[in-house]
Amino acid sequence: MSKEIINIGIVSKGRLKKESEKIFKKKKLKIYYNKRELLGKIKDRPNIRVLFLHAREIIEQIAIGKLDIGISGFDLLKESEINIQKNIKVEKKLNFGFANLILAVREEFIDVFTTLDLDEVADEFRKKNKRLIRIGSKYPNLTRQYLYSRGVTNFSIVKSRGATESMAAISTAELISDITSSGQTLKANKLRILSDGEILKSQACLMSSKLSKNKKGLKKLIKNLI
Amino acid sequence: MKSKNLSNKILRLIKSKGFKNIELDPVLETKYILQRSGENIRKYLFSFYNSDGRELCLRPDLTISSLLRYAQNNINAKEKVFYTGSAFRKSYNKKNVVVKQIGMEIFSSKNENKDDKEILDTSIKIIKKIGFKKANVKIGNFKLFELLIKKLSMPQRWKSRLLKFYWNEKYFSELLKRLQSNSDIDPIVVAGDKKNYLKMKKENPNKIIAGRSYREIIERYERKINDPRTVETGKYSVKIIREFLKIKCSLKDAPKKLNTFYKKYNLNISVGKDFFPISNLKQKGINFEFSTSNGRGKDVEYYSSFIFSIEVRFKNSIKTLVAGGRYNDLTSKILGLKKIPAVGAAINL
User: Fold this and answer.
1) Which of A61, A76, A222, B71 sits in a 20 to 30 Å window from A160, CA-based?
2) Given an 8 Å threshold on Cβ–Cβ distance, is B196 in contact with A105?
3) C-beta of residue B324 within 8 angstroms of C-beta of residue B343
4) B-side interface with A, Cβ within 8 Å?
5) Would you give the DSSP letter of residue B97?
6) In chain A, which residues have their Cβ closer than 8 Å to the Cβ of B160?
7) What is the pTM of this model?
8) Distances from the Cα of A29 to the Cαs of A14, A32, A206, in angstroms?
9) How far apart are CA A157 and CA B130, in angstroms?
10) What is the pLDDT of residues A120-152, one digit of tens each?
């Protein structure tokens, strides 16, 4: 991509897309695009290109400098590899996209109230079943880091690609860690959040690439957006 | 003094004390490292998969390698060994990726106190041999904390938790806050669980949910509700623990200071000199210091009783040159192998 063009990444669908567009509109940078098109423009700003991408891809592209700025989730940034994180600066935490990454068990696990209980149950589970208790998650790094910091080590992570809440019901995992905003989906799937099971508070963030910091006009654009 | 000359001097001294030189494998099975409970160590590991699917890693620590060698060779007799080599840990600082270590260990002690003394004495001799005229020897003993916890009034599961997380200073402090306040108990969730409990009691106890039987869940739940923690006793126990962890004095005064503390709270505990394996406290230039918190906050949760470190002043800063202790439970509780009483020390060059 050209050095002169400023590339902005925005989530390609859903509420994050709508809220991100609002932010730009408020700053008199209305985004124009044709329906189904994944490239957008901003009126009278030919040096700005908007790319509609998956939230994870926005983070990856910012890290390698293909995108100069973007809006994506704080959870996805913290879950990414350290080489990605070190190239990204969080410019501003935005007032939308609030959600928590949590650890939840089946509601029948009435004896598992905290990660302390989980630690003890995981030890017993291993002795009895000759295998580790499984945690289904789209966030293996954050989940592993959180549990290790609380002394829980007898577990394995089963990577989820979606519908994580169903994993405990269909026996692909014994418990799950997932992102939730209202907790309704968890409740509907008979899952209960551990009392100290909040792994990360997340929200949408405006992020910039540290590799693009000298790009002409970028500083001014970021200043305008925050 | 050049580093190679320095290591040779240390190695000659250790050898002269009857320790046998051993070679250690640079690669270990990762499971032995990950089973070390309570430690966030994976982020430091250089790990990879072998063609047979086993996850292997470069040794992040030589103590574990030496212990695995002893356990896997089925040696039962007492063995005094030393080794030298590199340990490998991921780091943001290139200098710390490869750490040169010299270590000595005594496995299967017949007389633990005597062997503890030997490791400490040899460590002090090493410090003197390499030219340090002054050193601060810091000593602690996990058994003292274990004795205290046994005497305090709280549910058994809480005793186990405090013992397990003693070394993890930050998390331990969070546990104490919970213990004294019950702040982590949400009455709405408790009521919901009670309702589920009554419902589950009526169902088939062999029914399995997420890998656990209803019987198992109900039994553990009942154990918990029949042995609750109360804010009042929790507060009192926390007060005692916090005061205990602040005890710090010269090693000479340690038994007296500890016994005064135990007496103050009517704990019916008495400690003698056998908790502190050193016979000669009057060594020129060596200061012996005792603290109930020695070693906490560091990655040393496998120590089961005596723990020590030796600090010296080097280029205007304080450096820990030798650290070690007794780790009788590392093989059985953490590596999942047979129990091997062991004591050792690592010299950090």
Assistant:
1) A61
2) no
3) yes
4) 34-43, 157, 160-161, 164-165, 168, 171, 175, 184-186, 189, 192-193, 196-197, 200, 209-212, 214, 216-218, 220-221, 224
5) T
6) 120
7) 0.78
8) 20, 9, 15
9) 48
10) 899 889 888 888 899 999 999 999 889 988 888
Closest Cβ–Cβ partner in B38, B184, B186 for A151: B38
Note whether B165 contacts A151, CB cutoff 8 Å.
Answer: yes
| Mean pLDDT within B93-108 | 86
Packed helices B112-129 and B3-16: angle between N→C axes, nearest 10 degrees: 150
Strand order in the sheet with A191-202: A155-159, A133-137, A175-180, A99-106, A191-202
Question: Cβ of A174 and B211 within 8 Å?
Answer: yes
Q: For domain B3-138+304-348, say whether CATH 1.10.10.60 is its number.
A: no
Closest alpha carbon to A24 in A4, A9, A3: A9
Give me the sheet containing B317-326, strands edge to edge: B20-21, B79-88, B98-107, B342-348, B317-326, B306-314, B135-141, B286-291, B248-250
**∠A17-A220-A34 over CA atoms, to 5°?**
30
Domain ranges of chain B: 3-138+304-348, 151-240
Burial of A184 (0-12, 13-18, 19+ CB in 10 A): exposed
User: Which structure tokens are listed for A112?
Assistant: 């598992």
| Interface predicted TM-score of the whole assembly (ipTM), two decimals | 0.81
Q: Which two tokens stand for residue B40?
A: 């966030």
List of domains in chain A: 6-97+204-225 (3.40.190.10), 99-202 (3.40.190.10)
pLDDT in tens, B155-192: 888 998 899 889 888 889 988 988 888 666 666 777 77
Residues of chain A in contact with residue B185, where contact means CB-CB under 8 angstroms, are 113, 195
